[in-house]
Amino acid sequence: MATEYFAGDPRTNRERMLAGDYYIADDAESNAIAAEALRLTAQYYHAEANGLPDARGYLVRLLGSIGDDSYIKPPLHVDYGENIHIGDGVFINSDFTALDVARIDIGDHCQIGPKVQLLTPTHPIAPIPRRDKLEAAEPIVLEQNVWLGGGVVVCPGVRIGKNTVVGAGAVVTKDLPPNAVAVGNPARVIREIDENETI
User: What is the residue-averaged pLDDT of the chain?
Assistant: First the structure.
């Protein structure tokens, strides 16, 4: 039984989730937040598609925070929205998936290509607890001025350093340093970037 994993732990599954510990995704409060996030993303898509005023207002309600001059091209997909924090001057292209069981920080002036996935959830490797639906999550951080090419996947717990460029289709399984170009699966650094480069 899944409940045996939490014997002696009085916390709710939502409290365990927010603490970064293993939990079961059956918490009523979390489910309500996820349902509201789904409504807000649908309303944002509709507002953008029809040129309605204040479409951005749906993003403000959905996300933990979003900075000035930042834009997300719909559609977008989130778990909760509330754990996503976006800085100033960020552009995110269509079909962005941000599974924000843990916090996701996107720094100022990041550029994110289409079909990028930022995935914080993890599951046990061991088959029995995985079958029992245990999961946890680790935060993701994109420092300022990161560029993720189309189709990049960023795995749980990864930090990508400022100014770093990740080539299309890469799978980022470990931290990447600042001022680097990384490609491949798993992503590996192929060259450094001079911060003073102009083209």
Answer: 95
In a domain, 198, yes or no: no
From 46, 77, 109, 123, the catalytic residue: 123
Assess whether 85 carries a catalytic annotation.
no
Residue numbers of the domain that contains 33: 11-192
Predicted TM-score (pTM) above 0.85: yes
HEC readout, the chain: CHHHHHCCCCCCHHHHHHHCCCEECCCHHHHHHHHHHHHHHHHHHHHHHCCCCCCHHHHHHHCCEECCCCEECCCEEECCCCCEEECCCCEECCCEEEECCCCEEECCCCEECCCCEEECEECCCCHHHHHCCEEEECCEEECCCCEECCCCEECCCCEECCCCEECCCCEECCCECCCEEEECCCCEEEEECCCCCCC
In a domain, 118, yes or no: yes
CATH number reported for the structural domain that contains residue 16 in this entry: 2.160.10.10
Q: What is the mean pLDDT of residues 61-73?
A: 98
Asked if the structure places residue 91 within a domain, the reply is yes
Residue 13 or residue 197, greater confidence: 13
pLDDT band (50, 70, 90) for residue 3:
low
